[in-house]
Amino acid sequence: MTRLHAEGLTLGYDDQAIVTNLDVQVLDGKITMIVGANACGKSTLLRGLARLLKPRHGAVYLDGKALTEMSTHEVAKVLGLLPQTPLAPDGITVADLVARGRYPHQGWFRRWTERDDDAVTRALDATGTADLVNRPLRQLSGGQRQRVWVAMALAQDTDLLLLDEPTTYLDINHQVELLRLLRKLNAESGKTIVVVLHDLNLACRFSDHVIAMAEGAIVAEGAPTEVVTAELVEKVFGLACVVVPDPVAGTPMVVPT
Amino acid sequence: MKTTTTVAPQVATAGAFRATRRRRTSRSLVVTCSLAVAVCALFVLTMMVGSFQLSAGEVIASVLQLREDPSVDFVVRGLRLPTAASALAVGLALGAAGTIFQQLLRNPLASPDFVGINSGAGLAAITGIVLLQVSGVAVSALALAGAVAAALLMYVLAWRDGVAGYRFILIGIGATLFFDGLIGYMLTRAQLSDARQAMHWLTGSVGQADASELRLLLGALLLLLPTAVLLQRQLRALELGDDTARALGIRTELSRAGLLATAVVLTALAVAVAGPIVFVALVAGPIANRLLGPATGGIIPAALVGAALLLTADLIAVHLLPTALPTGVVTGAVGAPYLLWLLATTNRQGAGG
């Protein structure tokens, strides 16, 4: 059993089930990327794993305990999430925003400590945002902004980190930069990372494990080199293609025909 | 090579972030203390001026009951203290409630004046004055009930998987117009003397406070301001959106309900005491943010700004103008230009919602 896993998980909004009866194991200390066409339920699954959506059936387990039976405050010390479109109050500075990532470690009366200072500093350093601390978030470029959000999630200092399409709105350079950052975090601290990602080629390049979803079900999962084939891409995205090895990394690369 | 590149910036940023945080903490302390001093000074000043001039020492001695002087005590404790205390309490309540609303709904326009709560209170109070012929505490009780009912109505109408700021505000403006229409209808049905009483109540004045209403508001402040301070952390997380707040371990529905309830009760009691005083709730939070730094959103500083504004407005309304006016007239005169400025700059930045 891995630390985070789901059994018979069914998730949905209102009276519509989006994800049905899934069993998922999130591999400890690895980077898992969830891929699939639009509206296949990949973000829904991530939200379910992060307890933002209550399961209709089944359950998500963290360290053997169902998330619904744990205090959300305790979960937040172990499991972090960066949502797809986080909101920031107008004019907020980078220092203020990243510091808010420390909330799970504070209580009703326990306020800021040296440990909080250290965690924020580590997060700023890891994401290369340390020299931005006094800048307002809205003055930053898209790439910088996204790194600041990752810094906030890192300041939470969790063993597991889930990110919902963190590269949306970024240009290719910043997409790669962000994914490299995630690889670095994973390599340096052994953090377990789960990312919902649109770009299949980047997912193959930067993940240890891919989960391919279609219509609310898992179609295939495993190491990118084993799983990502022309048949799978055809099945998941409805795209006719050939899959060739990436000339740099040797990971699968999808080329439409 | 790797060690030199990672160690060196670490030292630099450790300093940078700590320095930033220390600077912010001390700025917030200095601003909050200065505001508290300013509010105390204004509180004493409003009791010094008038047709019977008093020194600060006489006022303080009388309020703290350090000295017995029947004529001074009559003027201070009998006449001026109730008005000053109600300006202080109403200002604190409106300032705190306004900033909570604005942060929860992520919109600078979302003060209780604009989301139908004042109007709901007004409608209930006027209905009481006109139809039920009540006065005094009963009017305040009705205003309280009206504010709470209006808030619940807004919550039911505007809530759909969390609230979009604009949706809440549009529904609030609609509700305000509807309530105001009904208030107008009530006034046309009223006896002349009732209508006069009703209109006076509607303009909002800290001088109309009744002793028992004031005691209720002061008691509520003693309970609710500390509650608001405890909920400040939750509010700062909720500002980042429900998903982020939940990921940070905040129980979003519970926190939001607690914050809304705090803000609604504070607004309702303030309206019950002084009538619908406009704009204080709208401007207190933004002014506090100006003083503290952007997006700091301190509830206590905003409450103090509210109190300072209302005490100043009362000074101007009663003493500086040729004829004494209700406080609501002065806050309106100050608040309207601010609102125009807010609308203009919000559009330019495209960051209103």
Automatic annotation (TrEMBL), chain A:
Subcellular location: Cell membrane
MF annotations from Gene Ontology: ATP binding; ATP hydrolysis activity
Residues in coiled coil: none
Entry's Gene Ontology BP terms: iron ion transport
Transmembrane segments: none
Bilayer topology: Peripheral membrane protein
Pfam families in the cross-refs: ABC_tran (PF00005)
Gene Ontology CC entries for this record: plasma membrane
Keywords noted in UniProt: ATP-binding, Cell membrane, Ion transport, Iron, Iron transport, Membrane, Nucleotide-binding, Transport
Primary localisation category: membrane
Domain of life: Bacteria
PANTHER family associated with the record: IRON(3+)-HYDROXAMATE IMPORT ATP-BINDING PROTEIN FHUC
Protein name stated in the entry: ABC transporter ATP-binding protein
UniProtKB/TrEMBL annotation, chain B:
Keyword flag Membrane: yes
Record key words, sorted: Cell membrane, Membrane, Transmembrane, Transmembrane helix, Transport
Subcellular location: Cell membrane
Pfam families for the chain: FecCD (PF01032)
MF-aspect GO terms: transmembrane transporter activity
GO cellular component: plasma membrane
Transmembrane regions listed in the UniProt entry: 28-49, 81-101, 113-132, 138-158, 165-187, 259-285, 291-311, 323-344
Keyword Transmembrane: yes
Topology versus the membrane: Multi-pass membrane protein
GO biological process annotation, one example: siderophore-iron import into cell
Recorded family membership: Belongs to the binding-protein-dependent transport system permease family. FecCD subfamily.
Name of the protein: Iron ABC transporter permease
Organism in which the protein naturally occurs: Nonomuraea turkmeniaca
